[in-house]
Amino acid sequence: MDGIPPALRIESEGAVRTVVLDRPDQLNAIDADLHRALAQVWRHLAADREARAVVITGAGSAFSAGGDLEWITSFLDDPAARDESLREGAEIIDEMLRFPLPVIAAVNGPAVGLGCSLAVLSDIVLMSETAYLCDPHVAVGLVAGDGGAALWPLLTPIMRTREQLFTGGRIPAEKAVEVGLASRTVAPDELLDEAQRVAARIASLPPAAVQGTKRIVNMHLSRALDGAVQAGFAAEQVTMQSDDHRDRLAALRTRSERS
User: Fold this and answer.
1) What mean pLDDT, rounded, does the chain reach?
2) Rounded to an integer, what distance in angstroms lies between the CA atom of residue 191 and that of residue 181?
């Protein structure tokens, strides 16, 4: 795909496209290049006339560890990069909601922060039995603006949403299914094959019927999210400039350097 970095790989098999976050040594943490690619890839796939369904997964042991620490830290002294990341973050959410083809997330390991949002924005979420979801924004001094605070209350009971977002705790695969953030669990060594089987089955169905059904279902989400996503990113931008956030990032960098 022209202009897309190698850290986002697209594989084709018949009418199924598999999008692979491919920074396994960094647990598929999202840096500037990968973030931009995630904002652009949906239009590229929508223009693929042979595609009928998409699988998204991570290379190696993680789905995505969320924002790359070096990249996130750079925002403290680079407001232009910070604001661009927020604009792209809103674009990722909007593009995924408007994307016409069904998306199956194969959550093969930790899905953290934006990685978690990528998973739950998918139409079907299959999780490895050993995987987990986590949105740690609040724990690093940020409003959970890139989808969590706006989207989770539409998918799971609000009482559970509050506890998980406030504490940033891990949600194991089985619990994610129980509360409505995932579709079902799959044995780790069967996950990708199962996701591609589901995608192939959907791809074999009449495309106008599949895509029309997705469009109508997502109307509910889009209407409910209208305003909430914008408010979330605006609030996140404010907290990105806070002393609490700066201190939490410094502590994370110190911990990372020691490990």
Assistant:
1) 94
2) 17
Q: In this predicted model, what pLDDT tens digit does every residue of 171-201 receive, in sequence order?
A: 999 999 999 999 999 999 999 999 999 999 9
Of 144, 140, 142, residue with least CA distance to 253: 140
Q: Which residues of 51-85 are buried (b: 16+ CB within 10 A; e: fewer)?
A: bbbbbbbbbbebbbbbbbbebbbebeeeeeebeeb
Q: How do residues 75-117 score in pLDDT, each as one tens digit? A: 999 999 999 999 999 999 999 999 999 999 999 999 999 999 9
Let me know: does 131 contact 186? Beta carbons within 8 Å.
Answer: no
How many whole angstroms separate alpha carbon 116 and alpha carbon 74? Answer: 22
> Which residue type is seen at 67?
G
Indicate whether this model's pTM tops 0.85. yes
Tell me the CA end-to-end span of the chain in Å, nearest whole number.
Answer: 36
Contact between residue 70 and residue 89 where contact means Cβ atoms under 8 Å apart: no
Alpha helices in the chain (DSSP H): 32-46, 69-74, 79-98, 114-120, 148-155, 158-167, 173-179, 191-203, 207-225, 228-240, 243-258
Length of the chain: 259
Work out whether strand 111-112 and strand 132-134 pair parallel, antiparallel, or are unpaired.
parallel
Sheet containing strand 132-134, edge to edge, reads 111-112, 132-134, 171-172
**In this structure, what token pair is assigned to residue 6?**
């190698």
